[in-house]
Amino acid sequence: QVQLVESGGGLVQAGGSLRLSCIVSGSTFSSYAMGWFRQPPGREREFVAAISRRGGVTLAADSVKGRFTISRDNAKDTVYLQMNSLKPEDTAVYYCAADRIGALAIPTMNPDSYDYWGQGTQVTVSS
Fold first, then answer.
1. Which pLDDT does position 104 carry in this prediction?
2. Burial 40-54, CB ≥16 within 10 A → b, else e
3. What pLDDT, on the 0 to 100 scale, is given for residue 48?
4. Whole-number Cα distances in Å, 41 to 63, 67, 89, 90
5. Which of 21, 30, 79, 118 is the most buried (most CB within 10 A)?
6. Cα-Cα-Cα-Cα dihedral of 8, 10, 15, 16, to 10°?
7. Per-residue model confidence (pLDDT) at position 60
8. Read out DSSP for the chain?
9. What is residue 70's predicted lDDT score, i.e. its pLDDT?
10. Which residues of the chain carry a pLDDT beneath 70?
11. What is the per-residue pLDDT for 37?
12. Which of left, alpha, beta for 66 (phi over 0: left; psi -120 to 50: alpha)?
């Protein structure tokens, strides 16, 4: 059974940084493209960033480009989201997700394509 566990969330002041981690167990991590999504209070889940199976291709939402960086370590079965210059509007529950795609496929921003999801970690940015 594939399990995803996020960590690294918390409370931070505007302008600060956090690094989220998501470790995957129960399957071959390198078989999955990985994505980060978030759900702000009272709003729908939205795409944040995604990375291909080998890490060569990354996508990021316009709202986080230049501030957030997604990366992965296939030897550690872990995907990361480095978040810098945080803003109050980044406040949300952040979820990682795994998408089983072909080795050369480009990751997607569509949450419906992702097969497995973590439980989420809360990020709160104070002004």
1. 79
2. eeeeebebbbbbbbe
3. 98
4. 17, 21, 10, 10
5. 79
6. -50
7. 98
8. --EEEEE--EEEETT--EEEEEEEESS-GGGEEEEEEEE-TTS--EEEEEE-TTSS-EEE-TTTTTTEEEEEETTTTEEEEEE-S--GGG-EEEEEEEEE--TTPPP-S-GGG--EE---EEEEEE-
9. 98
10. none
11. 98
12. left
117/36 Cα distance (integer angstroms): 10
Tell me if 46 sits within 8 A of 61, measured CB to CB. yes
CA separation for the pair 69, 76 (Å, rounded): 18
Handedness of CA 7, 13, 14, 15 (dihedral sign): negative
Q: pLDDT above 90 covers what percent of the chain?
A: 94
Question: What are 70-103's pLDDT values in tens digits?
Answer: 999 999 999 999 999 999 999 999 999 999 988 7
* Token representation of residue 69: 């960086």
